[in-house]
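stage 2 :: seqdesign
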């Protein structure tokens, strides 16, 4: 009977740990995904704004165009376009394969002209992602502790009486 109690408690512990890991893993995924999306959007917006500032300072928009930057003139009558983010697959020459390419577009009216600025291939700042991972792992640890304390201390004493020998 004593081994049966140990097996049941061990099984309960494993089930509770698994539940804690599944729930916390789901939250980790959501938090990291949202942080990456947020940082990517912020960085692309900064890059596009920087190009618009260079045009405002009098730089020719043709001189700013690179492999990662495209600037189109669009009709002035069109409304200003807010930041638009999207991803596509594009061929990458150095790796000789298709890779995920991030693109941001935004338009500006500068000096009587209307420009659509599109920026490609951005690298996300990893410091914020690292902070998010550390924070989320701390939450996982606290969730596991809460599950263990609740289920091992919170069960009514009647549950344990089922395993006592007569």
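stage 2 :: out
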């Amino acid at each position: 009977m004593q081994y049966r109690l140990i097996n049941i408690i061990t099984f309960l512990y494993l089930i509770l740990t698994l539940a804690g890991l599944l729930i916390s893993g789901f939250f980790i995924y959501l938090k990291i995904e949202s942080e990456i999306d947020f940082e990517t959007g912020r960085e692309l917006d900064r890059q596009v704004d920087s190009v618009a500032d260079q045009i405002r300072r009098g730089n020719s928009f043709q001189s700013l165009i690179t492999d990662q930057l495209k600037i189109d003139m669009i009709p002035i009558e069109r409304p200003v376009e807010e930041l638009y983010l999207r991803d596509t697959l594009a061929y990458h020459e150095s790796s000789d394969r298709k890779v995920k390419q991030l693109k941001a577009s935004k338009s500006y009216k500068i000096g009587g002209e209307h420009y659509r600025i599109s920026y490609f291939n951005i690298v996300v700042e990893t410091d914020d992602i690292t902070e998010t991972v550390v924070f989320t792992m701390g939450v996982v640890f606290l969730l596991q502790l809460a599950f263990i304390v609740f289920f091992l201390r919170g069960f009514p004493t009647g549950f344990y009486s089922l395993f006592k020998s007569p």
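stage 3 :: structure notes
- The chain is about 55% helix and 20% strand.
- The two ends are 10 Å apart (CA to CA).
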